[in-house]
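Appendix B, Record 12. Input sequence as logged:
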Amino acid sequence: MTEAAEAAQDSWAIVVNHEEQHSIWPAGRELPAGWNEIGFTGDRQACLDRIATLWTDLRPLSLRG
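Logged structural output:
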């Protein structure tokens, strides 16, 4: 997605994979394999701000053991 398309997208969802890595994805769009929504949607900045509070250890789950 281009920067202009990202700016036009007004609703994003926070998604997480099996390694507990977080990202944002356009709300309502089919998720890529291996990613699940966590139930938080909002504008791009709200999602990024929420991720900053949730994902404090950036190491993949497999490395945290």
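The chain has one domain: 8-57.
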